[in-house]
Amino acid sequence: MFTAWEIQQRATMCTGKCSKCIGITLFPLAACAIVSNILLYFPNGQVLQLSKITDLVWFFHGILGAGILVILPAFMMLGAGGAGCCANRCGMLLSVVLAVLGFAGGAYCVVISSLGLIGGPLCDTGDGEYLYPFRNDTLEDSYLFNQTTWSICREPENIILWNIVLFSILLVIGVIEAILCFIQVVNGLTGFICGTCMRKRKTNISGM
What we know:
Low-confidence stretches: 4-12, 196-208
Number of helices: 4
Largest sheet: 2 strands, antiparallel
């Protein structure tokens, strides 16, 4: 049967390992978000004038929201979960604060990505003028569920598919990051309450 102190230490070690796992997972997600956001600036691999790029791309939801704002707490989570246990209460508490920041970044990415999918891309409809042909569509008439309307956009080529794929990737990444950061908030608070993790030294008892 475990004593209260042993239960506390086991719980603390679990929270430290959890922090480390979450931190490691967030790094590739943030990297993918940054790359996806950058690709949105080059529709179908083309270099366009700034005025011909979809406006929501300039909100940096992948670079800043799901990228930088998530990388910062990821570093802290790795530090707080070092060696399989939390270094100290301050470290875990700081990881909670930064996890809230990461949650906000992931949520921001979700909101902008959703708006990007709903509103559609900026494109040339054939008369040389760039506009948003799907911005006033209702949800029932959305281009997302009617692929025949995609032919409205003539340039850049495949701009609709390009936007749908990348905004969808960013949406999924944002959701996953927000969930992981929320888990870290709960996990970090648990580690903070449990206190500092002290690794037991193994002792050999002879003569027994």
